[in-house]
Write a structure and sequence with these properties.
Number of strands: 15
Strand content: over 45%
Helix content: under 10%
Shape: elongated
Radius of gyration: 25 Å
Distance between the termini: 3 Å
Order of helices and strands: HEEEEEEHEHEEEEEEEE
């Protein structure tokens, strides 16, 4: 994922080591709220030229401490009106639709139906370009007669990455392990290779969240004479980094 600029990277590193990030107010003043939201009252004002330390972040709100030890919450818009130690302006990249089209990493959870069985999948993706990404997914299927675990490697093409709603096309391969449920006749577990194609829709929701709906058609290359063809429908949410 594209990072929230160098400042946010500095903030994350500082938080990991317990060190605050110092900035200087460059506008007439900034307001400190008692909590991370506009509904919380303003209890203190920091004037231009004064120094504050950024202690942490919650969505678009930053927890800060003044030189007199007062701690409060400042909105992102006002943090952007401060200067770093080197005199450069703080510029925080906003998580929006444009950020989604420039994402690098994506992770998500989807659930649905795989050939009549309930299925849940988790995946991670890396964007090679705004249009093309690779995905690695792990899924668990729970059926009436057997359970399945499968791993897939996909190549996904997103037609309109700059739009809020965009169709997608998927091509991939994988491995599926099928475990029949206990019956009167003992049946061995089996592992087979698969190939699949799919279509779907991605809808940007807000900030770093995306809704996904997809259909895939699988061919399972079994050791028997006939291969299996299985349809899968899934929907879920993902977030990008």
């Amino acid at each position: 994922m594209r990072e929230l600029v160098i400042f946010v990277v500095m903030l994350a590193c500082a938080a990991a080591h317990g060190r605050p990030v110092p900035v200087t107010v460059d506008e007439p003043y900034i307001e400190l709220h008692t909590g991370p939201g506009r509904g919380y009252p303003v209890f203190h004002v920091v004037d231009r030229g004064e120094r504050i330390e950024v202690l942490g972040q919650r969505t678009t709100w930053f927890r800060v401490r003044t030189v007199r030890g007062k701690k409060g919450w400042v909105h992102q818009e006002q943090i952007e009106q401060t200067l770093r130690a080197d005199g450069s302006a703080v510029d925080i990249e906003r998580l929006d639709l444009e950020s989604f089209s420039k994402r690098r990493f994506e992770m998500g959870v989807l659930g649905g139906d795989y050939g009549g069985a309930n299925v849940i999948s988790v995946y991670g993706a890396y964007a090679l370009s705004p249009h093309l990404s690779t995905e690695l997914s792990v899924s668990q299927g729970l059926g009436s007669f057997s359970d399945s675990q499968f791993v897939n490697l996909n190549v996904v093409h997103q037609l309109f990455p700059e739009r809020r709603l965009s169709p997608t096309f998927t091509l991939g391969t994988g491995v599926i392990r099928t475990q029949p449920r206990a019956t009167l006749v003992a049946t061995e577990d089996r592992t087979d290779q698969t190939a699949h194609v799919g279509v779907g829709v991605r809808a940007y929701v807000t900030r770093a969240f995306v809704f996904r709906l997809e259909y895939k058609s699988y061919v399972v290359f079994t050791s028997r004479d006939d291969n299996e063809e299985i349809d899968e429908w899934k929907a879920g949410f993902s977030f990008f980094l």
